[in-house]
Predict the 3D structure of the following.
Amino acid sequence: MREDRILKTIKELNKQGVEAVVYGPGANFQYILDATDYWWQRSCDTNIMGFSSAYNLPDALLYLNNKGDYQIICNYHNKDYFTKKYLGHVTCSYMDQFEDALAPFIKEKRIGVSVSCSKFISEILKNINNDIEIVDGENLLNDIRCFKEADEIKTLRELCKFTDDAVMYVVNNLKMGMSQREAENLLVKYGYDHGVSDFSFPPTVGFKTQNTITTEDVEYYDREWKLQPQTGIAFDVGYMNKGYCSDWGRSVYVGKAPDICKKGYEALNKGVEYMASQIVPYKTNINELYALVMKKVDELGMLDYLRYKDVQMLGHQIGIDCHEFPMVNKDFDFVIKPGMTFAVEPKMWFPNEMYMRVEDIVLITEDGAEILTKFPRDLFEIEVK
Amino acid sequence: MNRREKILKKLNESGLDGLLFASGANFQYVVESNSYFWQRYCFNLDEPVAGARIIPEAMVYLNKDGKSTILTTPLLKEHFDTTLNDVVVSYMDQFEDELTKIIDGKKIGIGRDCEAWFRKTLKVKLIEVEDIFYDLRRIKDEKEIALMTKLGKFTDDAVMYVCKHLKPGMTMFEAERMIVDYGLKNGMADLSFPPTCGFKTRNTENAQSIEPFENDRKLVEGTMIAFDIGYMDRGYCSDWGRTLYVGRAPELVKKGYEALQAGETYMLSKIVPGVTKFGELYGFICDKVEELGYYDYLRFKRDETGGNGHHIGSEVHELPFLVPGDELVLQPGMIFCSEPKMFFKNEGYMRVEDMILVTEDGAKFLTNFPRDLFEIEL
């Protein structure tokens, strides 16, 4: 248990007038308990947000109140894991009995619950005391979780390096005639061979070939499409390990790229680097970042090709969940401070030519920003046999 | 024939090219591994099986040549018997890719677990055959019989433990918690269902009707306790019932419990394997109870389809249910539960439930908690 995280959580609870929280397995659960080796990510996964369905039963619950009292209710199969780490704060019970096991601890009347298993948790709280007011607990910790601590940064740094290496492995092992699906499976193989626990999301090694059906529509992908000369490849890859996620992007071009694409890719990368160089902690707002990328891209004459200029959507915080708050776009008012880690992912679209993406994870330091994803930005045209 | 041969015969008779099951009872039956605890995986409040839309964390495909391939995550791979099955490990997001490679037929039978995910993911023709092994699974093999015999005995012992630790003034909730703790302490994987130590105290409001039971009801003299308990371990379930009376029971009630027990043992004695039909059994209980003058107190009468029993195995309720007219002929190796009940208004509620194994020449109880233990002193 991390006392510092409990104290931070209590502060948030008090600020938001919530007396206690009950969390099913999920990001807040992991954060408070520092349970980075507890594999909750795929329990009952039903949707893209990665939240366990509201209707499912949790295999563990965390109760924490604003005085710092906490208890973990877990099932028989998790008993050893939790008892080892949180001795004295664990009630082992069978799933059908979680309500009974939780009841003795619940004294509060205004309780935040997680999105995962929310229906189940709300029902048992109402059974325990019908006067309990249930509020959203999922977003309670957004403002503390977005500032990463040293060990979280270390894990993210390792994951970024890992993803750099994984894509380099794919680039070196592409073959003409290989399908997009086969290229994506190289990422699976690399992850699995190196013991990473999972993907953050289904990876894309997006093939689009000049003047074919694939470059008529930006959304169109055919996973059976075969690699051939004049194909642009846009990577969107994230791995998950030790409870944290990466999210990563670059583009390469098979053969000699049209000048416009080469220029575009350079502008896109320069845009990201420029944006990162302009960040002043405690001063720059998250809603200004897209404009910084746009400014540089415009200077280099490639603004027409940049996507999402209307909503100025650039990215999202990243950590335990792949997509965390605050989002990085013009509508999110949030001053940037040290410890934030966010993914920035500007894209370009060249009809009939290629789709292009670059995605980096940016860490805010005391005096600026550091880009944690270091895959070479000048690697664009590649030769494939 | 061993299990795999029987399964293949079923598959070949079905006209299907292969069978595909996600984590669940059929999955366990095919892969023959019972260390993998699937029972609570993604348990969905609104559906009896793993939520149909959920991505399975393990699945097995069996083709016509008898080759079974398990597809699962890195975390679970060590649970499976690799002498019987090929095991393919991948990340969940890539299950679609892997599964597409594994499926080698055009017309595939699937179960209900994660059914919607299978339908969304696979392009081949899918036919729901959740019940394809029901008749095979109904006949237990030696290993299964040994496991379930142990579970019956374990449940006997658990209730005997509770019986010895009941205290005056204890709530129903506390009594049920002893059932939970006994299971946890002795390594049971789970309960088959939420346990009930149903308190009904004579001449009180709560003895006016069968439902509800009250968690905070206190144990006092004159309370009838109806147990409904089941544990789950190594892939199998128990389901169990007896009734106790705190203090000296009124003659009517005492004789009633004797009649209920007599009905149960009489029914067992009437079982002739290969002849007796499942649907006849409750009639035997009614005959004996009627002979002893207690028919009026039976909760369900001869022709009613109420909850009088069911088969049991890797799921606590397996088909068929014990209803009048069920034509299933009892065969050696079948294990079912018989659970007759009585209600005495103002006095209390009474139940007996046994797990019964059909043998070569009759039947025997797997639950042997003393039938003459009724009145207890605290």
